[in-house]
UniProtKB/TrEMBL annotation:
Residues 11-167 form the Arginosuccinate synthase-like N-terminal domain. Pathway: Amino-acid biosynthesis; L-arginine biosynthesis; L-arginine from L-ornithine and carbamoyl phosphate: step 2/3. This is Argininosuccinate synthase. It comes from Halorientalis brevis. L-citrulline binds at Y91, N127, R131, S177, S186, E260, Y272.
Length: 415
């Protein structure tokens, strides 16, 4: 527990209007001794109902709640993630990328309002506490995590809320822990905590049950790795992502059910929906396949993996992250062109790609031309074919002979 004289002034709380952050409001005054609490809700593309819930709850609590629109900034980061083909253990990063954007926005409000501290409602088991605090602990303000520091459980919170007559909605809405932003929707908790439990369709909100809809083609245009238009229509990042979520979600594209290893080492069962992300990642990789050289493609995999790892950890301000982005941006100068993606039965499959930077000439690889180029003919490959695997064949032959020698020796030693 902090010393009382450390907790003067006003604390800015990351506020959603859910159970965790609602109970934090009285606790920050009563248990921590702050004079006042303000709430900050950051818009990274949550559904309208979440803002209504935050507003209603804040009003009932008498909490001043600030709403900050960070959608553009967040959407830009999502499109950067596409340049990096970023996935963590197979799913597109969503919550992870939103947290630093949210944390920065809250810190800004706190500083403008002269707050002395910052607080969030994350538990001590998840990743989000780490992603918030790595940003906040770079400031002079105190940082608090009441749920973690007071060891709260949802059951305790519910009882406390009843006792204090706090405005919290019980019922089905609170059955799962759901985190939604422009890029993805995550659902965890309750019956989903059993990895063997097969989730019902009711956990999904962005994706239709895959199947039952005719295939649809969508054309994505990229400029230097950045998605700029869909089906010939230029769009800003927020609209483009929203549009693709609707389009691909209708085909059931972008569902993930996975076991995830959190930063602290805990393994958890997670379900995600991310239609736009799935389409954009598939399209972008297909375009890279057309324009990048083999060596760029394979080296970039390691860079992409590292970007995603830092992204997962919320370390988007790390010097390494900037360096990785430098490499990625350099490779993206040629990732300009158009990819056609087929949406059908829960799949988003690239089926066509073109680019002025295509590292490809039909005549070179074609079955219908005799030579490769004017001065390389098919016959030139004979020498390469003779050499190919030379060392491997030799190694196998030598070890066979050596094994036989050892076996012979063992037999004669026995005699
Ligand atoms: N496991 C994911 C991550 O760490 C999603 C977390 C979602 N958070 C939530 N409160 N439901 O990025």
């Amino acid at each position: 527990m902090p010393e009382p004289n450390d907790t003067e002034g006003t604390v800015a709380l990351a506020f959603s209007g859910g159970l965790d952050t609602t109970v934090c409001v009285p606790l920050l005054k009563e248990e921590y001794g702050y004079d006042d609490v303000i709430g900050v809700t950051v818009d990274v593309g949550q559904p309208e109902e979440e803002f209504e819930e935050a507003e209603e709850t804040a009003e009932a609590l008498g909490l001043d709640n600030y709403v900050v629109d960070a959608k553009d900034e967040f959407a830009d980061l999502c499109l950067d993630a596409v340049k990096a083909n970023a996935t963590y253990q197979g799913y597109p990063l969503g919550t992870a990328l939103a947290r630093p954007v949210i944390a920065e926005a809250i810190l800004e409000v706190a500083e403008e309002q002269g707050c002395t501290a910052l607080a969030h409602g994350c538990t001590g088991k998840g990743n989000d506490q780490l992603r918030f605090e790595t940003v906040w602990r770079d400031s002079e303000l105190n940082v608090h995590a009441p749920v973690r520091e007071l060891g709260l459980t949802r059951e305790w919170e519910q009882e406390y809320a009843d006792e204090k007559d706090l405005p919290v909605e019980g019922g089905d809405g609170g059955r799962w822990s759901i985190d939604t932003n422009l890029w993805s929707r995550s659902v965890e908790g309750s019956e989903l905590e059993d990895p063997a439990h097969v989730p019902g369709e009711e956990i999904y909100d962005w994706t239709e049950t895959p199947g039952g809809k005719d295939a649809e083609l969508v054309e994505i245009e990229f400029e230097q790795g950045e998605a700029v238009a869909v089906d010939g229509e230029e769009m800003d990042a927020v609209s483009l992502i929203g549009h693709l979520n609707d389009l691909a979600g209708a085909h059931g594209v972008g569902r993930t059910d996975t076991m995830e290893d959190r930063m602290l080492g805990l393994k958890v069962r997670e379900n995600y929906e991310h239609p736009a992300a799935t389409v954009l990642l598939a399209a972008h990789e297909a375009l890279e396949g057309l324009v990048l050289t083999k060596e760029e493609r394979s080296f970039k995999q390691g860079i992409d993996q590292e970007w995603a790892e830092k992204g997962y950890q919320g370390l988007v301000n790390a010097p390494l992250f900037r360096a990785l982005e430098g490499f990625i941006d350099e490779t993206q100068t040629r990732v300009t062109g158009t990819v056609t993606v087929k949406l059908q039965g829960g799949q988003a499959r690239p089926v066509g790609r073109e680019s002025p930077y295509a590292c490809y000439a039909e005549g070179h690889a074609s079955f219908n031309t005799e030579d490769v180029t004017d001065d390389i003919e098919q016959g030139d490959a004979t020498g390469v074919a003779k050499y190919h695997g030379f060392q491997e064949r030799l190694a196998n032959k030598v070890s066979e002979a050596a094994d036989a020698e050892t076996a012979n020796k063992a037999v004669s030693d026995d005699d």
